[in-house]
Amino acid sequence: MTGARPMSRTAGRRPAAAAAWPGRTRAVAVALGALGLLPLGGCGVLDHGFLGAAGPVADETRSLFYTVCVILIFVAGPVLVLTPIFAWHYRLSNTKSAYRPQWGFNWPLEGFIWIPPAIIVVVLAVFLWRGTHRLDPYKPLAADASPVEVQVVALDWKWLFIYPEEGVASVDELVFPAGRPVHLSLTSGTVMQSFFIPQLAGQIYAMAGMTTQLNLAAHKSGRFRGENTQFNGMGFQNQKFPVLAESEDGYRAWLARAKRSGKTLDMDAYKTLSARSVQAQPSQFGSVAPKLFKSILALDDAGAHAAHKEAKQ
Amino acid sequence: MSGDDLWYWLLGRLDAKALPFVRAWDHPTLSEFIGAGAGAMVVIGGIAMVVLLTWMRWWRPLFLDWLTSLDHKKIGIMYVVIAAVMFTRALIEAVLMRTQQSLAINAPGIVAPEHFAQLFSTHGTIMIFFMAMPFLTGLINYVVPLQIGTRDVAFPLLNSISLMLTAGGAGLVMVSLAVGDFSTGGWSGYPPYTGKAFQPGVGPDYWIWAVTLSSLGTTLSGLNFATTIYKKRCPGMHLMRMPLFCWTALCTSVLMIFAMPPLTLATALLALDRYADFHFFTNDLGGNMMNYVNLFWLFGHPEVYILILPAFGVYSEVISAFSSKELYGYISLVLATMAIGVLSFTVWLHHFFTMGQSADVNAVFGIATMTIAVPTGVKIYDWIWTMFRGEVRFTAPMLFSLAFLVTFVLGGLSGIMLAVPPIDYVVHNTVFLVAHFHNVLIPGLLYGMIAGYMYWFPKAFGFRLDERWGKISFVCWVAGFYLAFMPLYVLGLGGMARRSQALFEPDYRPWLIVAVLGAFLLLAGLATLFVQLFVSVRNREANRVPVGDPWDARSLEWSIPAPPPEYNFATIPHVDRRDVFYWRKAEESTYRAAERYDDIAVPKNSWIGPIVGFAGAICAFGLVWHIWWMAILGLVFAWVAVIARSFVRDTHRIVPAAEVEARERRWLAEVERARPIPRRLEETPQNVGLAEPFPAPVPA
Asked: Where do the Cytochrome oxidase subunit I profile domain residues begin and end (chain B) (predicted)?
């Protein structure tokens, strides 16, 4: 109680005091305050990336990252220590330091500068090989439950998610049940894009006429940010989408809502959708034409050459 | 023929809308005004230049003494001038982008997406092709022939053509500010985005032809330097006696020869896609953009080492000179340089780990990438051990070298992180990547180029640069770098995509504000370099070093007057060991008249270089705007000029022996009069370029 009084008093006086400050002092104070707040305001930033991991893939990537960081201390350490020490100790004005102008080679030293870096690289290579195979984006995640299949089409400047098993589709909104693995097949209806949900998994390119794959999962329910990181035109910066990891019930409810939306995604609807635009809100399609993903792929694969010719004749 | 047809025949797709001024009039937004302002700067700058040249009556000397010169030293200086001009533009663009990002958090900011995309595309293209490449080519041009004891490069005319092709490319990028738009596809210009289906405008065409001109010039430069180093070394200058800068220049030249063709090919195929409806890289009809990506990085990765190796050479020279000591581990450094050169061709895939290759492929390329860290680490240690038991002087070039050692290692760390594919998956295409390559290229290229510029400037112009402004500039460059790019590492880990015109995450704000402060500090770094140049030119009489050896250095370029005569060496030196000038000074056998002097043949000036460069740029401009008659005219003109030149027999001019001898004796008399100075007076006006023998060397 006693502590509360002075606090409330300062709080009450602050606006008046601020107004009384001359402009420049105030600007300096604000700048200093901003600098002081930087660590506070800035800390949250890492939570938006893979260091704020919320799924098994990002978890493993994060621990690999920390392992590599620890090894790298041995790479940088000697250089960061020796450079300033040597430069300062052997400065011209230090007359006590040794001077050997014609010394330029030493076998043991050669060993010291070639062998330890080589050993570090060998050690890193082992981690790299194992990590790359363990975290191969194509590798299905180990889990009891069967994965949720989602087909992803990158468009300008939105993402289309088709749920072939459920017969629904959504735009700019990826929803799946937490705890269950998700298997994504990606392609692009336009230029190359890069699909990325920083807190869940690494990114993978989506390219027209080709399919790439990505496996991910979320530990528990949550809302994450997904994005395209490959510049693709004027709406690029807006091409973010919410990723919702729901409970199994929540996911079912979302599917039901999507089905009720009534709209059908067929080739015509897709053509309309794929026009360059930014969608203000996520939207859903209650039904999807069969094998639509395949048809989208066929628009741009090599086989289209024949189709193109036929159409011309 | 209708009016429209006539217009198209005459001016292609050029119309009033191509001018940013017209666009700004039609849509008066801040972003358009910035665009129009930039265009106006090009126009006003061009007019001001013409007025200045006319007013000062500099047209004749500009053309007769400089642009038509085949002297490798003048060509080198002109390269650096191009780099400085383009650097200024690209750095201002960087500041504009940083400003935009710091303002555009849930807000529109000052630059519209269309302009922002052009900014990052021109910034990258210019920094790589029209700042870094001309800068290092300029240094190599100036220094290598002097270091290997020759009077010129192997092909002086080709050298001039290379320079002018690069200048033509740079000119094209500048013209794009005032006429039309530049590409929005980034410096790497990935199709299908840059294909006709998605970018029907002129932007990608400007990029294609500017890069093509520059890459042709660079390929020719590579051939020229490699031949020069192989064939033109003075007697006794074995490869293993060359200064390390020559080794790095050689390695860079070889990389240029083999790495530029994939780029030329990639841009040529992209041009066929855009102009002739080919389908190399389109989405449909069998095109595959992955081929472009592979070709581009088959060039792009060796390119990184083309950029960095010459700077490594500079550091080898600078650290050795300012430690008054032999370079540690010469053989190791040579081996490491060559190993880097070879390995640089084996890692291109790490630029697209996220394209969906198998884990095996990614892992192999990841390990290959990390392998490069070994020879690079060896080099770093070699420089550190060069300072060991030396006498280190903290001049501006040395300070840049020290900042390089510390900063580059940090860039190497993030490089190793990116080499691990799973880590790459989560930071690729984010500003973490942007931070990484600036963290290697700013210390690994820019600091080296600045250090080299400050180190060799007294040789080129005969007076030293102002040390105080050099150190102020150093502080700006180093502090600016850390402030501008360390926050980007954090933001990248936080998942911030690169090339974002607007942001929607308030947590990013404080870091972006720090970064923009850093960007302004970097701009101050460039400004102080110009101030330093201005101050130094003003005080040049006090800082003259006519004897030519201001730093008590070790290689042949310091054994001749500053500035050197057109023919470099009055008599061709004979070399019997490494660091020959150092040993001659120790044995007091330098600064002596030769027994006899001979006539010297130097290449006559030629208009062919400027003609080819200008015609090439005209051809490219015609291609960009579909003005076919102009494109054909430019191409024909360039070739006719080259063919006509091959019939010219009288290509050399003789400098008579008497003139050579008189000049040499005047210089030797100056050496006689000069007072040798100890190293602690190096930065004072008493330094006229004659070094006092250093405290008696202790045998190792």
From this structure: 66-576
Of B284, B413, B508, the CB nearest to A76: B413
Residues 349-388 of B with CB under 8 A from A: 352, 354-356, 358-360, 362-363, 366-367, 370-371, 373-374, 377-378, 380-382, 384-388
Helices (H), B372-430: 373-387, 396-419, 421-427
C-alpha to C-alpha distance for B424 and A50, rounded to whole angstroms? 11
- We report the CATH number of the domain holding residue B432 as 1.20.210.10
Cβ neighbours around B209 below 10 Å, total: 25
Give the domain extent around B415. 58-606+651-681
Q: Pick A128's closest partner by Cβ from B186, B406, B420.
A: B420
The dihedral built from the CA positions of residue B54, B453, B373 and A203, taken in this order, carries a sign that is: negative
Q: Which of A121, A234, A308 comes nearest B373 by C-beta?
A: A121
pLDDT bucket at A20, cuts 50 / 70 / 90? very low
Residue of B nearest to A76 (CA): B409
Q: Do A68 and B384 touch (CB under 8 A)?
A: no
pLDDT grade for A312, boundaries at 50, 70 and 90: very low
Is residue B635 in some structural domain? no
ipTM of the complex: 0.93
Kindly report the pTM of this predicted structure. Answer: 0.93
Each residue of B406-455: pLDDT tens digit? 999 999 999 999 999 999 999 999 999 999 999 999 999 999 999 999 99
Regions of chain B where pLDDT drops below 70: 1, 694-700
Which of B119, B426, B440 is best to mutate for the A interface (most A CBs within 10 A)? B426
Residue B50, token pair as written in the block: 């013409």
At the topology level, CATH places domain A53-134 in: Helix Hairpins (1.10.287)
Contact by Cβ (8 Å): B258, B345: yes
Lookup result for tokens 């008493």: B686
Interchain contact, B374 vs A114, CB within 8 Å = yes
The topology under which CATH files domain A148-302 is: Immunoglobulin-like (2.60.40)
Chain B residues near residue A134 by CB distance under 8 angstroms: 422
